[in-house]
Design brief:
Length: about 700
């Protein structure tokens, strides 16, 4: 197998690009480093293509390894033929290799293996040869009757032979592929309600549901599987069994007048129902789960990137509120640098409803610390707290004081984590949550990296998908985001540094320790003094670490130290009118490398997040009673799912823009139209005051 050619064809890139990129990966270079600093080598492949290439490379190498193992295992049994070897060599998927290996795979004792032990395999082959009369079959079967081998009579012999035939049919690659293909193309899945005393209406649409397997959407698969695991739904599959059986029987024995026909048919019906169908059903179930996991995780990844890349709100002190009922609303004041200035608890909601006292405390904090923004967590008691804050802003009459609702998903996990305890060992867990809420709007990336990405709460069914795959995928999204922005090495936490290209957890901790012991880094060269950060790690990470007030101006840019000499040769030139191609030839440097240098030197220290939409800051509050059909409002996209987008319009529950209402044109994928954190104009289509649900449209 030519791995380079296979990957090139799949990704529609040149074989040479694949070969050179694989060499870079095998040398230990990270994807962010390759994407940013090795464009000349890869032919300008971006991080998305590079990730796909790396994933495909891993799969194909695993496929080659499995082929080698299967060839060795079959050869050790003495069963390897040129035909089998050729089939394995031609296999392009792991499933094909496993199908070829299945008849040779060691298995527990089955009806077929026991029949073989009793010497009945020759009878099975005799029947399958289609060359013998009924009389000959009976005579041969009779000759195998042997009490010592527990073949007590003619019926025992024939039954054992058919067990062998049944298993042989179930393990035949071509027959398995017939059912598999039919299932994928024309098969269907149905779900029905399991009658219980209490009916869980969460799965109401699946109480009597049926759909073709090829048309199933990821969220429906996950919903049905969850309903089944909770014993609310019963699932069943229809693979057009009668059609499959006729086709397989015709391949085994076309002549209905053959003496073997009746035996083969009986063995087929038994093997199909008992062995083949359950096996393929399990495969199809797993395929659907893998599809649903992949699609859902893709949605998570698409939602996570814009969420993490929200622009920071700099240069202002702010208050973080973590609302609650019985235990009150936790308050934390943080400086423009994220330092904790003050904290307390207020009780504006039930059971106390001390709104006057709560306003008094907040007013003191606002005046004392010159607070300009109040960040309110969107969890329990959020809207009651929002109403109190909006009223307070109106009372104070401050034109430069605002509030914003912040997604607090994962804040409680961070608060009780080892990292949360290390950062604030003397503060209560609940106060840490309020600090996290404030910091999430001050610098979303720096704060959100402290939480495992799967707990951030963008997507659907995060607990139902493959957790390892989810974690790995989302971590690559965070890694790409962090490296695209760059990190101030002198202010970054170990959690943030850990996502920088080439920096491990231990090295991230060592960087922080070095700062604590020696003061801020003065230049990138000083990184070489950090324990565990060797030359290879330095090459991978240096370009992504920033030192704003250091000895070297270029240390606060994305220019890699390996390109400083070139950068200094052009830094004083008129970069806006520079002929980059001509200059690249003159300096004997790659065009793409010089182009990136010029762009970086034009805007040194630029933060790409500043180009993203800013969060909506509010000073008043809406309730569902304030809404009217036809009203147009601005809102923030909070989540994008397969069937549409949820938009925060300032009321308790986010409104839903169904996929059919996202655009006047046909929309296949909602994420093609909107992203998490987008600010959008929406029109109210309908309001259900009882359920709190609001339907929205972007067709304005």
């Amino acid at each position: 197998m030519n791995i380079f050619k296979t990957i090139a064809n799949k990704l529609n890139i040149k074989e040479q690009q694949v070969e050179k990129t694989v060499a870079l990966i095998d040398e230990g270079n990270t994807i962010p480093f390759i994407s940013r600093y090795r464009k000349e080598v890869t032919g300008n492949l971006d991080d998305v293509v590079l990730r796909a290439l790396d994933e495909e490379l891993t799969y194909l190498r695993a496929l080659i390894k499995r082929k080698e193992d299967v060839l060795r295992l079959i050869e050790e049994q003495g069963n390897l033929t040129e035909e089998i070897k050729e089939s394995i060599d031609k296999a392009e998927k792991l499933q094909e290799v496993e199908d070829i290996y299945l008849p040779f795979k060691p298995k527990k004792r089955t009806r077929a293996t026991m029949a073989k032990e009793r010497g009945l395999e020759p009878l099975a082959e005799f029947i399958l040869s289609l060359e013998h009369s009924e009389k000959e079959i009976i005579e041969f079967a009779g000759s195998l009757v042997d009490e010592e081998k527990e073949v007590l009579n003619l019926e025992d012999a024939l039954k054992g032979a058919m067990d062998i035939i049944a298993e042989k049919i179930s393990e035949t690659k071509e027959f398995r592929e017939i059912i598999r293909t039919e299932a994928r193309e024309n098969g269907s899945i149905s779900s029905s309600l399991i009658e219980n005393e209490e009916i869980d209406k969460t799965y109401e649409m699946y109480f009597d549901f049926s759909e073709k397997i090829k048309n199933l959407k990821a969220h429906r698969v996950l919903a049905m599987y969850r309903g089944e695991s909770e014993k609310v739904l019963k699932l069943s599959f229809d693979f057009n069994d009668e059609k499959n059986q006729k086709r397989i029987l015709n391949m085994l024995c076309k002549d209905k007048d053959s003496a073997s026909y009746v035996y083969i048919k009986e063995a087929l019906l038994d093997g199909y129902k008992r062995l083949l169908l359950p096996s393929i059903e399990t495969e199809i179930r797993n395929e659907l789960k893998e599809m649903a996991d992949t699609e859902s995780i893709k949605v998570f990844a698409e939602n996570l990137k814009p969420y993490i890349m929200q622009p920071p709100i700099r240069d202002m002190a702010m208050i973080g509120l973590d609302p609650g009922y019985r235990t009150g609303c936790k308050v934390a004041v943080i400086s423009e640098y994220g330092d904790v200035l003050d904290h307390t608890a207020i009780f504006p909601t039930k059971p106390r409803e001390d709104i006057k006292g709560s306003k008094k405390v907040l007013t003191e904090f606002i005046n004392k610390y010159n607070v300009k923004l109040i960040a309110i967590g969107n969890g329990t008691a959020s809207r009651e707290t929002e109403a109190m804050v909006a009223s307070l802003i109106e009372d104070l009459g401050k034109k430069d004081l605002y509030y914003s609702i912040v997604n607090e998903a994962g804040a409680s996990i961070y608060s009780a984590s080892k990292l949360g305890n290390q950062e604030f060992p003397d503060l209560d867990v609940t106060i840490r949550g309020a600090i996290s809420i404030a910091r999430r709007i001050q610098d979303p990336m720096a704060e959100l990296v402290k939480i495992e990405p799967q707990h951030i709460g963008v997507g659907q069914y995060q607990h139902d998908v493959n957790q390892k795959q989810l974690k790995e995928t989302l971590e690559t999204v965070v890694e790409d985001c962090v490296n695209s922005v760059g990190v101030d090495v002198n202010t970054a936490s170990a959690a943030l540094l850990n996502y920088v290209s080439g920096i491990s957890k231990s090295v991230a901790k060592n960087i922080v320790m070095y700062k604590e012991e020696n003061g801020p880094f003065k230049n990138r060269k000083e990184l070489n003094k950090v324990k565990g950060l060797g030359p290879k790690s330095f090459t991978q990470c240096a370009g992504f670490l920033r030192i704003p007030d250091g000895d070297e101006l270029l240390d606060n840019t994305a220019v890699h130290p390996e390109s400083y000499e070139i950068a200094k040769k052009i830094i004083l030139e008129d970069l806006d009118n520079l002929d980059i191609r001509k200059k690249a030839e003159e300096l004997e440097v790659g065009y793409l490398t010089l182009k990136d240098l010029v762009e970086e030197l034009k805007k040194p220290g630029r933060d790409p997040r500043d180009e993203m939409p800013k969060p909506i800051l509010r000073s008043d509050v809406l309730s569902i009673d304030d809404l009217e059909e036809g009203m147009v409002l601005k809102g923030t996209v909070r989540n994008v799912v397969a069937f549409g987008a949820f938009v925060d319009i300032g009321i308790k529950n986010d409104g839903l823009v169904h996929i059919s209402e996202l655009s006047n044109k046909f929309v296949k994928n909602p994420s093609d139209i909107v992203k998490v954190s987008d600010i959008v104009d929406v029109k109210i289509l309908s309001i259900d005051s009882k359920t709190g649900k609001v339907s929205l449209s972007m067709k304005i």
